[in-house]
């Protein structure tokens, strides 16, 4: 049974979402503030998070930065396009605006759970010719092992988890800083450049799968 954490201080909406999800066979946990959400995430690891932004305690934007390796669908009344773009660049898997149709919400949940399941399968992440084995930290390009530094591995893993999405430089640093103290705002570009070169050199066709999006960040191609 898939486990979904609903983070929303609106009791009515939260109850409605919980009822719909329970009826669909999901296990549901609730948190009513940003602070409570981090406490719940400290003791549980849900398969997916539905996150409101306007929360008491810590705002949703702050909570999002603390969630790693779990797909997050932002559910918010904020409709500003720039706000949506910033959240998606910051690591959110999807964004749905209140009020929403429950059928659409369920469809988006299904899509994100399917993507996450594919990524977690046997601890192996695959994308085209690229394979990353999380248990052994092994990276293969068409079955050829690729030697990466700790920082390069962390960057590649994060990009694979969000394949096709542009990740802002600040979001990348926030997500990998605990494990890669050598990666700073000034050195990130060089780490990515080294990673791109290694991937390109290892591919028989010289394929460059990491795209630099000027002024924003980086994206790993899904092709």
Give the total of beta strands.
Answer: 12
End-to-end distance, in Å?
A: 31 Å
Structural class label = alpha/beta
Helix content: 40-55%
The H-level CATH homologous superfamily of the largest domain, spelled out, is Response regulator
Q: What profile does the largest beta sheet have?
A: 5 strands, parallel
What is the N-to-C order of secondary-structure elements (H for helix, E for strand)?
EHEHEHEHEHEEEEHEHHEE
**SS field, number of helical segments:** 8
Total discrete domains: 2
CATH topology type of the largest domain? Rossmann fold
Provide the CATH architecture of the largest domain.
Answer: 3-Layer(aba) Sandwich
Overall pLDDT, averaged?
A: 87
Q: Give me the oligomer status.
A: single chain
Tell me the strand order in the biggest sheet.
2-1-3-4-5
Please tell me what the overall shape is: globular
Layout of SSEs?
Blueprint: E1 3-7, H1 11-23, E2 27-31, H2 34-43, E3 48-51, H3 60-65, E4 72-76, H4 81-89, E5 94-97, H5 102-120, E6 124-127, E7 130-133, E8 138-141, E9 144-146, H6 150-161, E10 166-168, H7 169-176, H8 188-202, E11 210-213, E12 217-220
Parallel strand pairs: 1-2, 1-3, 3-4, 4-5
Antiparallel strand pairs: 6-7, 7-8, 8-9, 10-12, 11-12
Helix pairs in contact: 6-8
How does this model look, in words?
This protein has helices at about 10-25, 35-45, 60-65, 80-90, 100-120, 150-160, 170-175, 190-200; strands at about 5, 25-30, 50, 70-75, 95, 125, 130-135, 140, 145, 165-170, 210-215, 215-220. It is α/β, with parallel strands linked by helices and about 220 residues long. The chain starts with a strand and ends with a strand. Helices cover about 40% and strands about 20% of the residues. The protein has eight helices and twelve strands. The protein is globular, with a radius of gyration of 18 Å. The relative contact order is 0.10. It has two domains: about 5-120, Response regulator (Rossmann fold, 3-Layer(aba) Sandwich); about 130-220, Arc Repressor Mutant, subunit A (Orthogonal Bundle), CATH 1.10.10. Helix 6 (about 150-160) crosses helix 8 (about 190-200).
């Amino acid at each position: 049974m898939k486990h979904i954490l609903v983070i929303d201080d609106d009791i009515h909406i939260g109850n409605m979402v919980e009822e719909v999800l329970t009826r669909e066979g999901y296990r549901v946990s609730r948190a009513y503030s940003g602070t409570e959400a981090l406490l719940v995430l400290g003791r549980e690891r849900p398969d997916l998070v539905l996150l409101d932004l306007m929360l008491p305690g810590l705002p949703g934007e702050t909570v999002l930065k603390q969630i790693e390796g779990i797909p997050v669908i932002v559910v918010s009344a904020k409709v500003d396009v720039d706000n949506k773009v910033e959240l998606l660049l910051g690591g959110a898997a999807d964004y749905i605006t209140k009020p929403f149709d429950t059928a659409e919400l369920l469809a988006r949940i299904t899509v994100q759970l399917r993507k996450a399941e594919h990524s977690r399968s046997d601890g192996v992440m695959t994308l085209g010719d690229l394979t990353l084995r999380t248990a052994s930290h092994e990276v293969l390009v068409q079955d050829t092992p690729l030697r990466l530094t700790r920082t390069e591995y962390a960057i590649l893993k994060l990009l694979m988890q969000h394949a096709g999405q542009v990740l802002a430089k600040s979001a990348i640093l926030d997500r990998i800083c605990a494990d890669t103290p050598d990666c700073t705002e000034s050195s990130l570009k060089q780490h990515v450049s080294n990673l791109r070169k290694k991937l390109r050199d290892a591919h028989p066709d010289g394929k460059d799968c990491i795209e630099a999006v000027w002024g924003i960040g980086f994206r790993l191609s899904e092709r």
